[in-house]
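Issue 218. Parser rejects a valid record. Input:
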Amino acid sequence: MVEEHNWKNYYKKKIYKKKIYKKKLYRTKGDKTENILYEKNIYKALFTTAFPLMVSNFIIALLDVTDTFFIGRLDNSASAQAAMGAAWPIINIMLAFNNGLAAAGVALISRMVGEENYEGAGKQAGALVGVALAMGAAINTFMFFAASAVMSFMGADGEVLGQAAAYLRVSSFEMIPLFIFAAFCSIRQSVGDMMYPVILSVVAAVANIAAAMVFINVLGMGIKGAAAASVAGQLSIVPFYIKGLFNGKATVTINLDDMRLSAKEIKKLFKIAGPSIEGQLLASFGFVILQMLILKEGKEISAAFSIGNKISNIILAVVMALSTTMSAFVGQNIGAENMERAKRAYSVSRNMSVLMMMAGLVILFPMRKQLVGIMSNDGKTVAAAVKYIAVVLITLPGLALYQNYIGVFNGSGNTVLTLFMSFVWLWVLRIPMLLAVGRMYPDNPGAIWIVMGISNVLAAAAGHLLYRHIYVKKWG
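Output the parser choked on:
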């Protein structure tokens, strides 16, 4: 193994003199490849690279709560929030393909960047965008025409069914821009460029909130307005990331020829994306079953579940940004054959994530009643949500560990481990435990919150066992 201090000279010699497509290699302003590969202080390297994405995710999660706030002011707030909560597991099933492709893109492209194979990285990026476009269009069509049947299968009925189907149908038009944007973010994150995706994400979030104020408050579109606002937010940034994808001065760019779906590039992409997509699908189908179980408890419990998740996501989004950045660190350093630095990146990310979650717990726990009260005017919903958020906040450190295991598995290209961990979390732990508790305590819906908290901790323990018994042996 080459010593770490030699990588700086090796990197400068090779990368800065590299000629790609017979022209000088340009780097985007936010390119952090140099930082990722040989910055001595890895805490500094990881934090400075992740910070823009952390800020972006925090702002987006915070702004996402405002949708819930606007819906929570409606006369039928409980049914509207229950409808949004019921529709989200279906949207997450569709986004499983998106997330799987993005994880594979980071793993493949970051490794090629670490190997200095920029031409190959461009071709793989083009394949990623081409597949994202085709898949987004297919999912858009399915969601639009199958919305009512799917939500009826979920167990929604009456007012909740009508609103959930409408929300899903309008949201379907978000899929194509969302898939392409995720591919763009994956490409930029592979070279450590978090800044430009962050800026675009914040712009989309602000446009979303502005549109929601108009559609819900002014035009009275209700839950359809919330979905339409999300579509408007995504469409507002399309011209910017399309230009970024084809910008010849970026570190990794594509052209139209790269988007032609060759069997070789697709096979390489899905070799990594396949297990990740399967894992996401297993998780998403698990959440469908979970939501079906929660809907049986009534619309107030379902609305409380949705509100509690929105609040916890404010902190979880920051940790997810850190684990996503760590994934790029792991991929690039494995590509550069610096395995020790890849392992160190995981350890640093894990430690920082747990500390952040502990801070979030200390800050949000005393404020939980006030936060929930802002997002609903229904007394039963507020009472149930306060109990749920208390359990979720206490188990946040476990979720931090879980997200970091996902990051290290995806970054190293071993997405099959992510698949296994997702399967254990939902299908071995959470769903069987919920079914058992439902039979044992049929008149105590609050018991399901305890089960969710326990499953979060046990899932983190499962990830720890996978890492210890597989990665420690492999990395030494």
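Fixed in the parser; the record now loads. Residues 77-114 form the longest helix (38 residues).
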